[in-house]
Amino acid sequence: MIDSLMLVDDENLFHLVFEDACSLLDITLALEALDSSDEADKLFKKWFTDGPIDERPECVFVDLNIIGSSFDGIELIRKINYEYGNGVVIGIISSSQDEQEIEKARAVGAQFWIIKSDDIEPRLEEFKADYEGYKNRTAPFKVYK
Amino acid sequence: MKIQKSTRDILLEIAKHKRVYVEGNFLKLIEPEEGDEEFEEYLKLCKEKDSTSRRKRLEVTKQVQKQNSELERAQKENKRVNRQLEKALNEAIDSAEQSKKSKEEAEKAKEELEVALQLAEQSKEEAHKLKSEAEHAKEVAETDLSLLQKKTQTELMGSIVRVALWVIMGVGFVTTGLYVFVLLLGHDSKIIESTWSNLFGILLTNSFSIIGTIMGVKHANGGDKK
Question: Which of A92, B47, B108, B200 has a CA that sits 20 to 30 A from residue A115's CA?
Fold first, then answer.
């Protein structure tokens, strides 16, 4: 089970869906849901510059298009991976299946891409099974359709 | 994580009398003491209740999310339709303005055409006037020419008559003179007598012929004029 997980998504209703699904599937013990990439960026910057780095979540799920934010999910992943020390399991959770966007996400270090839909639980279950591989950096990039 | 017995007892007491159970991810951390079947059952019940309530909430949230998505889609569609309506309205306004402009241009062109028609009418009237004046001038010129021709003919005829009369009279006088001379001198006058007679006759005939011809020509000219 993941100790702590962060979700960055502008849709508040999805926060509830994700939280309940994660709880039912025993994916995580603690979930922090943010609705802005700027807020997530600020937290990771703080953890990187001021510490403690242990406060960082173990895994981060980022929406692709975060309405009301200065930048999208791919840019947030790039910042976390290249500016704030990397070290977390990170990927996209989005309803988009755009191949170009998926390729861009992989290029900035995203480890997975989960297609967001009404029936999210089977994908999260599959993700849970692959999680150790992501944590060890041995699992390849995967799209959960 | 294991909890103290007193806490365990309180939790069980609350569940028994108040039917209130521990909820949330905290449950996943609590472990019962070995052999404590009562607390193990309690935790199992708590987890079941928590799962049931979470599942219910998840279904409701999904339903709300679905409805929300549909509403958002409908809102997007409304926006799209509104944009189209706005565009159509703008196009209609543009068309109306264009029509108005075209109408104004047509009216202007009509006014210009009317002015041009008036000018053309004036030009036509002037052309008619000029034509009338030209015809009048032509008539005057023809009359003048006719008069001039008539005058010339009359003068010519007068000259011819005069010359012819002078010639006739001259020949008459000469012949008569010769006849008188022969008579006075007493010479043989037979030849001159017949000659004078013939010549006089011829001269008279010619004179009347000339006069007749002239009168005829004059009469003919007078008839042409009529």
Answer: B47
Q: What is the layout of strands, in order, in the sheet containing A28-34? A: A28-34, A2-8, A59-62, A89-94, A112-115, A142-144
How sure is the predictor about B223, in pLDDT bands with cuts at 50, 70 and 90? low
Nearest to A13 among B28, B29, B64 (CB): B64
> Are the C-beta atoms of residues B39 and B12 closer than 8 Å to each other?
yes
Other C-beta atoms lying within 10 Å of the C-beta of residue B162: 10
Tell whether the model's pLDDT for residue B226 goes beyond 50: no
pLDDT band at B184 (very low <50, low <70, confident <90, very high): confident
**Residues A27/A128, Cβ–Cβ less than 8 Å:** yes
Q: Do A20 and B51 touch (CB under 8 A)?
A: no
Mean pLDDT, 10 residues at a time, over chain A (145 residues)? 91 90 88 93 90 86 93 94 89 94 95 90 93 93 93
Q: Read off the tokens for A60.
A: 């981060």
Chain A residues lying within 8 Å of B50, measured CB to CB? 23
* Residues of chain A positioned with their CB less than 8 A from the CB of B54: 20, 23-24
Cβ-nearest to A29 among B28, B57, B68? B28
Report d(CA B224, CA B226) in Å as an integer.
Answer: 5
Average of per-residue pLDDT across B4-13? 89
Chain B CB contacts of A16 below 8 Å: 57-58, 61
Contact yes or no for B27/B46 (Cβ under 8 A): yes
Q: Which of B198, B192, B199 is nearest to B178 (CA)?
A: B192
Contact A128, A98 (CB under 8 A): no
- Residues with Cβ < 8 Å from B38, sequence gap 6 or more? B12
Q: How far is B55 from chain A (nearest CA, A)?
A: 7
Name the packing angle between helices B37-185 and B5-18 (round to 10°).
Answer: 70
Interface of B to A at Cβ within 8 Å reads 24-25, 28-29, 50-51, 54-55, 57-58, 61-62, 64-66, 68
